[in-house]
């Protein structure tokens, strides 16, 4: 069966432990405005982008230097008919050695092309996973700092006339 969930990956020279630590440091690669924490199983955090998107995420699983799994507990999109498209989906970070490098495979289970938000979300995840890669490789990510960062976010803001 064909995998349809959104997935992206990359290789870095850093150790699996460094990759794991960077994933958990969500304010340094995803959004400086995240409320809550993502440090241990059971933690919850809220991510939001202006009035476009807000999601409540629970840390479901953590295997140091190997895996992180988040579950979207609640979600709101202002730009889709089904405002809750992400609710119940899971966000998975798989970490593995690949020779002398480390591979990170990111998968958003349940984020599929049939979702109205798919193109915007694909653009968002591509941008923020690139930021995560920068954080891992250089020590500095490019998180959202409270404004529209991706091209899709900027187009949605312009369409709203904001």
UniProtKB/TrEMBL annotation:
Top-rank taxon: Bacteria
Domain named Activator of Hsp90 ATPase homologue 1/2-like C-terminal: residues: 15-136
Positions of transmembrane segments: none
Pfam family, one: AHSA1
Gene3D superfamilies linked to this entry: 3.30.530.20
InterPro entries: ASHA1/2-like_C, START-like_dom_sf
Similarity annotation: Belongs to the AHA1 family.
Protein name: SRPBCC domain-containing protein
């Amino acid at each position: 069966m064909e995998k349809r969930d959104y997935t992206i990956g990359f290789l870095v020279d850093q150790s699996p432990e460094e990759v794991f630590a960077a994933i958990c440091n969500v304010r340094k690669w995803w959004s400086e405005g995240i409320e809550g924490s993502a440090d241990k199983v059971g933690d919850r955090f809220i991510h939001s982008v202006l009035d476009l998107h807000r999601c409540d995420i629970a840390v479901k699983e953590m295997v140091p230097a190997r895996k992180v799994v988040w579950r979207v507990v609640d979600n709101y999109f202002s730009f889709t008919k089904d405002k809750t498209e992400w609710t119940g989906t899971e966000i998975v970070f798989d970490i593995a050695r690949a020779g002398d490098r480390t591979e990170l495979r990111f998968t958003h289970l349940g984020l599929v092309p049939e979702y109205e938000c798919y193109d915007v979300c694909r653009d968002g995840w591509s941008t923020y996973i690139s930021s995560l890669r920068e954080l891992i490789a250089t020590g500095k990510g490019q998180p959202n700092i409270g404004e529209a960062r991706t091209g899709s976010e900027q187009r949605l803001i312009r369409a709203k006339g904001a």
